[in-house]
Amino acid sequence: MDEKYHLALKTAFASEFSFYLKAHNFHWNVEGPLFAQLHELFQTIYEEVYGAIDPFAEHLRALQVYTPASLQKFSMLTTVKDENEVPAWSGMLQELLADSDKMANIFRITFDMAEQAGDHGLSNFLADRQDAHKKHSWMLRSSLK
Ligand SMILES: [Fe+2]
Fold first, then answer.
1. Which residue among 18, 55, 102, 117 is least crowded, i.e. fewest CB within 10 A of its CB?
2. Ligand 1 center to residue 44 CA distance, Å?
3. What is the full DSSP assignment across the chain?
4. What's the mean per-residue pLDDT of the chain?
5. How far is the CA of 28 from the centre of ligand 1 (A)?
6. How far apart are the CA of 42 and the centre of ligand 1, in A?
7. How many other C-beta atoms can be found within 10 angstroms of the C-beta atom of residue 9?
């Protein structure tokens, strides 16, 4: 159980870091008639997600799990794929929406694992992450209508 559980947490952590980086990427590189709004929306999202990175890493350490902390480790573990091109603004919204939905689902699953392990402080944190991603998804989805 522990190994599967710890790997799922490391995967969630690497995926969250990748999600943060992609939101920051889009904040920098977005173009188009909605530039000002989207530049700001992507900032709101990357700042919120970045704020969760350090507490997440420290939750892993409290479980005596070493925190993945290199670009190579992140790329081995992440489920959020790098974006190496510069999509059009609507493509950025669609891609980040799909990734945010994916993150909400990852946190739904890891929440259940943390509850089963009796790690209630961590499961609280994971529930909050699921909630935060649902909110990010809402804003991204609404910007596409
Ligand atoms: Fe900026």
1. 55
2. 10
3. -HHHHHHHHHHHHHHHHHHHHHHHHHHHH--STTHHHHHHHHHHHHHHHHHHHHHHHHHHHHTTPPPP-SHHHHHHH-SS----S---HHHHHHHHHHHHHHHHHHHHHHHHHHHHTT-HHHHHHHHHHHHHHHHHHHHHHHTT-
4. 98
5. 7
6. 9
7. 23
What letters, b where the CB count within 10 A reaches 16 and e where it falls short, cover 112-145? ebbeeeebeebbebbbebbebbeebbeebeebee
Cα 104 to averaged position of ligand 1 atoms, centre (Å): 25
What one-letter code names the amino acid at 55? P
Q: Which residues of the chain have pLDDT under 70?
A: 1
CA of 114 to the centre of ligand 1 (A): 35
Predicted local distance difference test score (pLDDT) of residue 71: 97
- How far apart, in whole angstroms, are the C-alpha atoms of residue 100 and residue 102? 5
